[in-house]
Each structure stands twice: as C-alpha cells, then as structure tokens.
Amino acid sequence: MLGSLRTCKRVLGIISVAALSVAMFGACGSSSADSGTGRVYYLNKKAEEQSTWVKLGQQFQKETGIPVQIQTGGNDYDATLRSEMAKQKAPTMFQADGPSFMKSWTSYAADLSGTTLYKSLSSEYKDSSLTNDSGKPIAVPYAVESYGIIYNKALLKKYFDSSWSSVKSISDLNNFKALKKVADEIQAHKSDLGVKGAFSSAGMDTSSLFRYNYHMATNPVYFEVKSKNESVTKVPKSLKGTYVKYMKNLWDLYLKDSTVVPSAISGKTMDDSAAEFSTGQAVFFQDGTWSYNDIKDQSVSDSDLGVLPMYMGVPNEEDQGLNQVISNYWVVNSKASTADQKATEKFLAWLVNSKDSRKTISQTMGLVTPFKTFDSSEYQVSNPLVAANREYEKAGKKSVTLIPDPSHQWEEDLGSALLSYAQGKGSWSSVKKVYTDNWASEYKLTYDN
Amino acid sequence: MLTMKGKAIRRWWPLFVLPTLISFLLGFITPLIQGMYLSFTSFTTVSDAVWVGLKNYRRALQDPEFLHAFWFTLLFTIVTTILVNILAFFVAYMFTKAMKGAKIFRSVFFMPNLIGGIILGYIWQLLLNGVLAHWNISLTYSATYGFWGMVILVCWQQIGYMMVIYIAGLQNVPNDLIEAAAVDGASSKQILYKITIPMMMPSITVCSFLTVTNGFKMFDQNLALTNGEPSNSSEMLALNIYNTFYGRAGFEGVGQAKAVIFLLVVAVIAIIQNRITTRKEVQA
Fold first, then answer.
1. What is the widest separation between alpha-carbon atoms in chain A?
2. Which residue, among A226, A215, A127, A247, has the nearest Cα to A405 in the 3D structure?
3. Do B247 and A408 touch (CB under 8 A)?
4. Could you give the count of Cα atoms lying within 13 Å of B269 in the half-sphere of its Cβ?
5. How many other CB atoms are there within 10 angstroms of residue B242's CB atom?
6. I need a surface site. Which of A60, A228, A270, B59 has the fewest CB within 10 A?
7. Across residues A293-297, what is the average pLDDT?
8. Residue B244: phi, psi to the nearest 5?
9. Residue B192 pLDDT > 90, yes or no?
10. Given this model, what pLDDT does residue A160 score?
11. How far apart are CA A204 and CA A265, in angstroms?
12. For B118-162, what is each residue's pLDDT tens digit?
C-alpha cells in the first residue's frame, strides 16, 4: 500500500517536472508547418516606412493568399537580421546596403537573374545589382537616391541682387571657384542676408557624419576610379589618392563659411544642420533627396529648394551632375524552402508591377526606383530635390556614382582624420593617408581572407 | 536520524533541482560555451560557424583601438573606483552621524540608481554640453572631455548605491568598541582609521568589487554619452567589442574573441582585487 503510494508520488513528480520542462521548451521552439503556397517574411530596415510596408504586405496576402509577414529591424538592423536568420522561420527576404554588407551574406543570397524583379530593372541599372563570385545578381537595388549641395533659392536670389555680390546668376555658379566666391561673400555679409553662415553646420556627430565620411568621401574615389576606367560597382583594391586634394577645397569651405566655429562640429547633429537650413539660417546644406521630409513645410518653400553638384575644383566640373547613391537592395534568402523563395519572388514581382504597390512606393514612400515599370508619369515622385536631379540628367550632366568602400572601419578612420583636421589637431596629409594606406589595409582585412 | 521530511528531500531533490538546472544550462552555460566556441570561428549567424583557429585572437590583439580601449577603460576604472568609494564612504559617514533629514538625503542620493544608464547618459549629455557650449565645444571635442563626463556620470549614479552598503557596514561597527576607544582617549580621527575602517573592510571589499567590475563592464552610459566619439577615442572595452562585430565584414568572430579576452581580464583583475581587500578584513 505504502509502496504504491510512493510510486504514485514519484510518477506525479516526474510528470510535473516533465510538464514544466515541456512548457519551457515549447516557448523557445517553433512549430514549422510548410504549406504548399510558401510564405513571405520581409525583414525591413526602414522603420519609418514600416506601416506602409505592412499595408502592402496585407494587400498582397489578400490578392494571392500567400501569408506575408513584414517586420522592422529597427535601429539595430544588423543584429536583428543575424538573430532572425538563425531561426527556423527565418526571413525569406531582407535588405542589403552595399557590397561590404553582402560580403557577409553571400551564402544566404539566392541568384535572382531569372526573376521578374531583376528583369524589371531599367537597362542602365542592371549593372548596379550586387553579384556573387560567379557574377550572378544576388541583390537588386530598389531605390536610387541623389545628393549634392541643397540651396535656398530665395536667399541666393537676395545674394545675386545685392550690390556687393560678384556672381550674379545661378548659371554662373557652376564650378568650385564660383561656389567659393559666393560662399565667402555670403559669410562676409551674413547679417545683410539675415543668415548665420553660408553653409549649415558640418556635424560630425554620428547622426550626420555619413555626409562627410561616406557621401563627400566618395568624390575623390569616383574620379580616380573613372580616370583608371575601373568598375564603379566594385571596391577598388587600392587608391593613389590623386583627387583627395580637391576634397580639401570643399571641406575647408564647409568649415570656414559655416554657421558654427570648427570646434563645435564634433557635437553637431543631423537635426541641427537640417534645422539651420530649413529655418533659413544657412544658404547651403549638403544632403540628399531623402532629407526632403525633414526640411519641407518649414520656412523654406518647395519652390525655393535647389541642388548644386558637389564642386571641388576638379577639372571640367562644369559638366558635373549630382551624386547618385544606391544603398537599398533586396535579397532573397537562398536557405529558405523552395516554396518560400517562389512566394517571395512572386511578392517582389508584384511590388514592382502592381498598380497599387507602384503608387504606394512612389507616392506614399516617395522612393525613386531603378525599375522601368515606374517610368510613366503617374509614378514620378513629387520631391523638388528629385526633380532637380532629373533636370541635371536631362541637361546631360555627368552624375557622380558612389563607389563602395572596403569597410565601416575605413569610414570611421576617415571621419576621425577629417575631424582632427577641422579641430587643428591633425594635418591634411593624414586624411590622404586614410585614402591610400588605410584603404589598402582595410581591403586586405575584409576581402583577402 | 533523519525525519520523514528530510528523507523525502534527500530522495527527491534532484528532481526539483532539474527545472532550474535545465534553465541554468540553457540560459547561461550553453551561451557561454557557444560564445567561446564562436570566438574560434568565422560566422554570420550562430548556426553557420566555420572553424578558423586562433585567427580571431590574433586579429583582436593586433587592433590598436582595442588596446586603446583597454587602457582607457583601466584608467577609467581606477579613477571611478577611488572617487566613488571615497565619496560614498564620506556620504555614508555623514548620514550615520546625527543629522536632520538624513533619511531623506539617503533616499535622494540613492535615486540616480533607479534611472537606466542610457537615459542618464542622455540627460548628462544635455547638461554637460549645455555648459561646454559656452566655450563653443561639446563633450565629443576630445576624449578628455568624454572621460571626465563619464566619471561625473558614474559617480553621480553609483555613490548612492555604495553609500547604502557603507551605511549598513557602519551600523554594524559595535558601539562598545568605539566607546572603549573614546574612553581610552582616542581622537575621532584615530577611531575612524584604527577602528571604523578596519571593521568596515567587508563592505569595502563588496563596494570596490562592484565599482571595479562596473567600471570595466560599462556600456550604456558610454554609448549614450559619447558613443566613443571623437573617432572611437572615448570608446571603452564593451563598446569596442560591440562595434568590432559590425566594423568590417567577417569580423564577427573577432568581436567574440575580444569578448572572451575581456571576460578573462575582468575575472583576473576582480579576483586580485578581492584577495587584496579580503586580506585586510578583521574580526571584532
């Protein structure tokens, strides 16, 4: 009797422990049931557009019955992607920002050469896809952005009309010499124009640093790569730094003719700089089409927004257009099941072909895409900064393409050299050294494993 | 002679320890071992690791920024350990003396601990940058400003916490010892150095251990206050490890290797520190 009671207790005990453990395991595991239709799971990098993406996903799900899940990677996209990709129900598609990023993820990227998405690319952007070792496209760009020196037309007109100005029209402002003259004169007469400086602050805070250690930094690389007739989509192995001296012209100008003294730039943020421009405290502001949302509906009206190419004094720069940057690519996870990959490819094809999604992408999100399916006028983005780029292209100006750099570390190194130079602690030769020595060593560390 | 209850416990304990043990194994031991394993591999996600041997360790030790972060962190830890402990002891000493409103002050001093490091970091960034703006510079002008900014922040945050431990220690110093010393004609300075501090050594061990390890492990305050700027020169070890992970393609394992080195260094230093202060502990 006692014995059976004991056994009973023991059994009960084991059951309760087992139940506890099962509950625990159950929480971390996942049940995987692959349906025949496949599924789509998009890990989206742009948190600000998340709700719009979710709506698009729901619509696709309603039309096709394929379940769509869209999650945002938030501030720490890299970390989220790493943990999500290790899961059983991993994202079936994700976003890449360039070749350095794809270097880590090549083994997760499916060949997209046969997909509708890739075939929908305009011919001039086919080469902009990132490729794997065998030359197959694995990351397809979906947004093309341009940048340059955004200017306030009303303030500049005030300058042209002043008795003390020596440049009298925007058409004369087509090289670095003219830009320097205009900026210097505005700086000298800033109280007459009611501004705090010609250029908004060149913030070196993390939020704004990319404008200089990535966007401005590409010009010397581009001109060197072009002079050597090399590919603009590959990371060059090494650089001579022949064109770095021209960047000094522009950087000096940003520092001297600014709303703030150089000692203050280390703490100046993107918000500071955008606010100075959008409230009319500065005439010039280096940034791109994406900043339109931050500067619109304030004291500078849309019709007063113009963009100048980033003139640095490079020979024949009168023909130069705006800088073009592609930092948004779609990648399909090659480790997802075949059904999931098929479903994802279908979703991507739908995104660039369906009427509704094209409308949403171009009008609600305001993205300029590299797809020929967006060519008709109803899918043109209404953004004056985008319109400015179209004008330059129509006038046959030559765009400057952003050349990928070897690593984030290289950007960090350049940022620190630029800041030291600005604060008077470092020389320009150390900036040039980052282009030559650090470029080569970073390339080695990242690519010659 | 065991009671029925005792017998039952002896027989059944393994079963009831099991859930906790499994969680401990899953949530602590497994990640630790996997983390160590990953430091010898090249990986993008934790499930596709490829063994590369000691390459990550070589790269970690060749990184000048890692070494800079190490010295920066060491200096920071030394400065904050000394400052926080002396000030916390002083404040605790003050508040155990008869003083009006001591309880309210204790709570006030403890309060910074209840605010998260990231929020503290941003609040102090606003305050310090507001002051520095008079000279047209900010915290990120050079690493020196960032360093002292973080020292101020950490003192402000931790003094209250250490104070509570010191108060408990002070209240445990037997009154009869102090009275006897006073009767024998010891000055208050002598009482402090010859009786109170030696009797307080257990609290000092605990507090210095906490400040040393907190100093080494500091991450969120560093991230919020300076984020390593300018150009990673105010970057401490934990932030450096975090940034290494994403700094270059293929450097995930190097970050992992740095984390293992970091673990060993902090463990060794904490053990040494513990030995030194424990040896000074006395019995009443």
1. 113
2. A215
3. yes
4. 22
5. 20
6. A228
7. 85
8. -60, -40
9. no
10. 94
11. 6
12. 888 888 888 988 898 888 888 888 889 999 999 999 999 999 999
- Contacts with B24 from chain A: Cβ below 8 Å: none
Tell me the per-residue pLDDT of B223-236, one tens digit each, with 9 for 90 and over.
888 888 777 788 99
**pLDDT at B42 exceeding the cut of 50:** yes
The whole-angstrom separation of Cα A178 and Cα B109 is 60
A263 touches chain B (CB under 8 A): yes
Q: Does B249 touch chain A (CB under 8 A)?
A: yes
Long-range contacts of B262-267 (CB under 8 A, 24+ apart): B262/B216, B262/B237, B262/B238, B265/B70, B265/B216, B266/B213, B266/B216, B266/B217
Residue A200 DSSP one-character state: P
Interface residue B233 vs chain A (CB under 8 A): yes
CA distances from A158 to A154, A162, A189, A407 (A): 6, 6, 12, 43
What are A316's two structure tokens?
């024949």
Which residue matches tokens 């209850």? B5
A108 touches chain B (CB under 8 A): yes
DSSP assigned state of B277: H
Residue type, B92: A
Chain A positions in Cβ-Cβ contact with residue B23 (cut-off 8 Å): 24
Whether residues B137 and A260 touch (CB distance < 8 A) is answered with no
Average pLDDT of chain A? 88
* Nearest Cα residue to B158 out of B212, B199, B202, B200: B212
